[in-house]
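Exercise 7. Given the encoded structure of a 524-residue chain, write a plausible sequence.
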């Protein structure tokens, strides 16, 4: 029975999900790092919010861990590269608190526009300073969205309902989606120049850190409003403080800060500044949603291998998993063979999908093939870590899809460039069994056998007899024998399944046979 550690406060319904599906789950919240390091190695899955830090030390100690699930969007508390290197899937729940966060961003925008917090404090102090708090309408104003993903789009929808004009800067926003959302896609400089209010919604990356820098703030309109309900660090907080004090920024409202918990911050006490303690996801509905979602995602992964909302590998739904299963096995077998014939290093990889398989979600298939391909060099690699490893090594990777396959309903072909030469093989699933159906563009149909001899030779009389004699003298039993060739007397391929290992001395004698060009022992 798989075991799950729930290390942060989640709705009790998350525990119910695990227990109802026969998964053992333990709730251990508030653990200090030494305590977490001591027990995390006993678990197959880890469920967290933002308090528990799954850093490289925790990942290294998690010998059995297969998946980390974050109940929420941000994963700053998880070392994704370290998890990826260990083959641990990292999931989040990007949609469970989207509406709540979007609503909070709009609440902050209203609070900044109408100075709600300061007016409340003044009024409750008995001052009744009605003339002091002169706000601005949002109607007909231009809202600039930096980031227009899921939450940004929800903010845009609500701002448009307020009759605001919305411009958006997001490199990943397509012109077609911008039209559907009713927003104008612009570059950052144009957004800064035009926006009456700016709301930030991108992830925190090296490219987005301090996207509102001192220089960027200087390019905004005087009197601009700034709202950040996304991630701390998107705004240069010291620069914003100076802009608030000078009046260039009329008001700002933040729910997130560079350092949290934010017990002290340069923005605290700034004029017309509103702060909340990271409440974007803090509604009963949102907390229930993300807890249920992360529990369901972890349970699906542990039970069926389904991957949902993963940040370091391709997603694969529970419905897709059964359809992909035979092709995952085929991709693994093909990758294993291809990795062993890449004798002179791995310079490039091409993977082609033909027929019905090309209509499926091929990302998990590619990841599986890559894992098998590089395993001869890195035994601990898996489908999570393999794509990152291939990228880090500088190996070129291309994929191609074709809707039809000339012979088979579905075919997967792997090409590897090694020592400046391309070597290719292809496979298909026939009656539920994975088979090799092509080597070097030569058709054949061979079973995958635990030990195989792959021999490339010229198609000349006497070869098969010499091969059989040599193996017989070495007391190596032939389990299967499959041949393919271009044409009579031309290039030929033999795939021979054998029941014993083939010693190097016998391989050398095979290479010395007339017309033999290449001999390789393949182990599965």
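Solution.
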């Amino acid at each position: 029975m798989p075991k799950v550690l729930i290390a942060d406060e989640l709705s009790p319904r998350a525990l119910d999900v695990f227990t109802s599906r026969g998964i053992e789950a333990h709730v251990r919240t508030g653990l200090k790092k030494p305590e977490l390091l001591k027990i995390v190695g006993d678990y197959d899955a880890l469920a967290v919010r933002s308090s528990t830090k799954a850093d490289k030390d925790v990942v290294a100690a998690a010998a059995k861990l297969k998946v980390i699930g974050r109940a929420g969007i941000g994963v700053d508390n998880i070392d994704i590269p370290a998890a990826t290197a260990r083959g641990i899937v990292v999931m989040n729940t990007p949609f469970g608190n989207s509406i709540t966060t979007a609503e909070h961003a709009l609440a902050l925008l209203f609070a900044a526009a109408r100075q709600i917090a300061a007016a409340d404090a003044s009024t409750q102090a008995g001052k009744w300073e009605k003339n002091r708090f002169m706000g601005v309408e949002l109607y007909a104003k231009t809202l600039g969205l930096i980031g227009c993903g899921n939450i940004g789009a929800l903010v845009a929808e609500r701002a448009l309902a307020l009759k605001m004009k919305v411009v958006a800067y997001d490199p990943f926003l397509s012109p077609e989606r911008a039209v559907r959302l009713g927003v104008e896609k612009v570059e950052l400089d144009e957004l800064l120049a035009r926006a009456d209010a700016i709301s930030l919604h991108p992830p925190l990356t090296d490219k987005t850190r301090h996207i509102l820098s001192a220089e960027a703030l200087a390019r905004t309109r005087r009197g601009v409003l700034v709202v950040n309900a996304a991630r701390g660090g998107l705004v240069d907080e010291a620069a914003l403080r100076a802009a608030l004090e000078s009046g260039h920024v009329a008001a700002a409202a933040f729910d997130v800060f560079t350092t949290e918990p934010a017990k002290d911050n340069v923005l605290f006490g700034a004029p017309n500044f509103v702060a909340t303690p990271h409440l974007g996801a803090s509604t009963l509905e949102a907390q229930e949603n993300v807890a249920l979602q992360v529990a369901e995602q972890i349970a699906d992964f542990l039970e069926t291998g389904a991957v949902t909302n993963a940040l370091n590998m391709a997603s694969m739904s529970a419905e897709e998993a059964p359809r992909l299963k035979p092709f995952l096995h085929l991709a693994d077998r093909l990758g294993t063979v291809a990795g062993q014939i890449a004798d002179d290093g791995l310079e490039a990889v091409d993977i082609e999908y033909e027929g019905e398989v090309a209509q499926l979600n091929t990302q998990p298939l590619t990841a599986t093939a890559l894992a098998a391909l590089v395993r001869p060099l890195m035994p601990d690699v898996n489908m999570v870590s393999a794509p990152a490893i291939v990228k880090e090594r500088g190996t070129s990777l291309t994929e191609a899809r074709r809707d039809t396959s000339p012979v088979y309903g579905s075919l997967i072909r792997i090409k590897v460039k090694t020592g400046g030469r391309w070597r290719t093989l292809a496979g298909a699933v026939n009656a539920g069994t994975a088979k090799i159906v092509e080597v070097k563009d030569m058709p054949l149909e061979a079973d995958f056998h635990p030990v195989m001899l792959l021999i490339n030779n010229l198609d000349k009389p006497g070869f098969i007899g010499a091969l059989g004699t040599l193996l017989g003298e070495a007391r190596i039993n032939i389990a299967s024998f499959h041949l393919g060739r271009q044409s009579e007397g031309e290039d030929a391929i033999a795939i021979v399944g054998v029941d014993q290992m083939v010693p190097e001395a016998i391989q050398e004698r095979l290479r010395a046979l007339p017309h033999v060009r290449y001999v390789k022992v393949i182990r599965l």
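Remark. Residues 98-275 form a domain with the Rossmann fold fold (CATH 3.40.50.720). Students should compare their own answers with the one above.
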